[in-house]
Amino acid sequence: MTLLQHPIFRRLYAAHIVHIIGNEFTFIAVVGLLHDLSGSGLSFAAGTVFRMVPYVLTSLFSGALVENWDKRRVMLIVNLLRGILVSLFFLITSVTYLWIAFLLLILVNICSAFFQPAMQVAIVSSVEERDRLAANSLLQGTTSFLIIVCQGIAAVLVYLFSYRYNFLLDAACYLLSLFILLRLPPIAEAVAHKTGTHFFARLQEGFRYIGGNRRIGQVILYQMAERACAAYYIMLMFYVLQERGEGLYVFGLLDIPLGLGGVIAGIAAGRLAERLNEQGISRFQGWALIAMGLSIVAVFHIKPLLGLAVAILFCSFASFSSSILSVTKLQKLADPAFLARVFSIREMATMGAFSASCLVLGFCAEQVGSAAVSVWLGLFGVVAGVFWLWSRKQLHRLEEQESSVHPE
């Protein structure tokens, strides 16, 4: 593959693989830790909020700061700090120290908020525009494949041993990722150069740029709706571990169809982009949201585990497909000078929607049951998808009218 012949993308890709391997081990370990220390649906939601809220708030300004920093150095420092912090989870053994677990989640995700805009700038700087969809599909497809493999391995390790050792494996992966990035070649930033403009002025410019670019704003709103639907996953923890009384390894195994859906999406997204025009891709995004809504309802109303896994597979495919296509759209639409700010604001908006939804869904699931809540969440997904399809049709008509009034 020609993408992997590029030295910058190849090392970013390798570091990403190693990081995802460790991250999947830690994810199930954090679920196990919260289950042991508390076990309530609200604690699962709180864990997600303590991961996402710091990420959201930090993303508000991380892009504007990263613009003036060395991207390679940012990624190196972030991986070093995350490796140290993740290893400290291993020492938490009592509910007395539950607050320390939440504090570590906060610190790890503050660090992570600086990594995403730095990596996006590195990808756009090193990958030509015609290859970016392939790059995003490769990253997403690999991530999803690793979810399948690593969650399966993690589930077996949890069943045979203690989930605590997963924290140490993740710390080792962060350090290995750091060593891979140490040899990252210089990143040439043709447009996004260092600027003396005040930080808050650059931040305001970023918001004004998005506000003045209708298409970018609409893509971000679409992704907020998709992330709100994806928060069903927090209910899945409560549903599987508490309402169904399954073991932690079962929850880990259910991540396999989640990853498989992402793999299929990574393959399908590139082919869809080749066969469909811009209008066709927008229609696919709308139907993907509708499919997510229907799948969410199915997840919490199908009793056999096999049926539950199939519903998760369909939901995952719809979610990952829409995400790949949306990220590629943003990379194409955004001016390179604003790219870091666009993606940091996008992270703030989408993860903010995800965090708020997780907290609401976790609380409501504990009050009235996950099955009832899933109906309302599914309805939201269907309505959001229908609204997206309607808005795309209106935008297309408006553009046709403008082109007829101002022909080239």
UniProtKB/TrEMBL annotation:
Superkingdom field: Bacteria
Organism: Brevibacillus parabrevis
Example of a GO MF term: transmembrane transporter activity
InterPro entries in the cross-refs: MFS, MFS_trans_sf
Gene3D superfamilies in alphabetical order: MFS general substrate transporter like domains (1.20.1250.20)
Keywords: Cell membrane, Membrane, Transmembrane, Transmembrane helix, Transport
Pfam families the record matches: MFS_1
GO cellular component term of the entry, any: plasma membrane
Compartment list: Cell membrane
Designated name of the protein: MFS transporter
Topological type in the membrane: Multi-pass membrane protein
SUPFAM superfamilies membership: MFS general substrate transporter (SSF103473)
Segments passing through the bilayer: 12-35, 41-62, 138-161, 167-184, 224-242, 248-272, 284-302, 308-327, 348-365, 371-390
Taxonomic lineage: Bacteria, Bacillati, Bacillota, Bacilli, Bacillales
PANTHER family in UniProt: BACILYSIN EXPORTER BACE-RELATED (PTHR43266:SF10), MACROLIDE-EFFLUX PROTEIN (PTHR43266)
